[in-house]
Amino acid sequence: MSKFEDHLWQEFVREHGHNLAQMCRSAARPTLRPRVVAASGLGLAGVGVALALVLGAATAAPAFAVTRNHDGTVTVEILRSAGVAGANAELRQLGVRAEVMSKAPAACQTYAFEQVAPTTGGHQIANAHWTIDPRTIPAGRRLVLTPASEGNSGNSGSGGQVYNCPDNFPYRPSSPPSGDSGNGGSS
Amino acid sequence: MSTLASVGVAMRDGSRDSVLAEFEQVYRSNVGGVTAYFARRCADPQTVADLTSETIVRAAGAFGSFDPGRGAARPWLFGIAAHVYAQYCAQAANGRDAALRLAGLADLPVDEIDELAGKIDAQRAGRELIERCAQLSALEQAAVELVDLDGLTPKEAAAALGVPRGVLRKRLSRAHARLRKGNHGDE
Hints:
Radius of gyration of chain B: 17 Å
Order of helices and strands of chain B: HHHHHHHHHH
Mean pLDDT of chain B: 77
Oligomer: heterodimer
Distance between the termini of chain B: 35 Å
Radius of gyration of chain A: 18 Å
Strand order of the largest sheet of chain A: 1-2-3-6
């Protein structure tokens, strides 16, 4: 192997060897996927690591991305509305009590949340992203992330909305609108 | 690189050493190919390093759910690399790559930058082939690259791209025919 490849392996073992150890201690296969995948020491340090995106082919556009940032926050990006369901599935997988919805249930309240930086616009959930800190979500509560509503600028003044909702609220699974497969597949 | 990745890996026992050793085999067998994949796409050695590193970290995070019975490690890794690159492009389009590059430049030693610059130069023919593929569909481009440049079998390329084998073979054949036609047209 080249120097770079050797160096990368050493860095990887130092930074992430324990993740593999945790993986093998878990008996059940579905739980083997680590909750957090930290970025490598060789780069991407300021960006965090995206944990999922929907993609059909190598050059297709992703529909969503859920990113665990280095400071513990999580960034949810919806690039196309078809990515909502996948993003919500990934949030569940990560154990983050948050959900992207087109409209918050009536039982929810607008959330004054310092770490939230919504930058959405319009009523379609597309080209929208939110950054939340899962550690600050109160017990028994769940965040609902929605696009901006007219006349309401959101917590950070940039147009999105985050709602504080009961965790046991009967949430409906988000489904992509018809006519958009959500996987960005191309041929 | 050896053909170990084609054999696949399995978690035979729960020891850390075993999982690390198995992942190391996957790494050593494929990291050169992954680096070349990014070297064909990026002129900046640091970016090549970052994207390679990111791919390896993500592969480790998903290693628990990797099932060698469903396919070899090599196409699995290239599938991850394709996702990483697509997300990198999306971030770059949003202007978020600036932070990534600034974060990484200080970390890579000069000799490794030189080494990666050499790899980028070595991929010139690959880049030219990709440029000639611009007339093809995204799937055809990816198929040509994975089979003709990365050395995957059509079956492995189909797995990496998430398409049926028959579709891949048909598209690959059509792509080759169009490329040959283009060559004759140039002469």
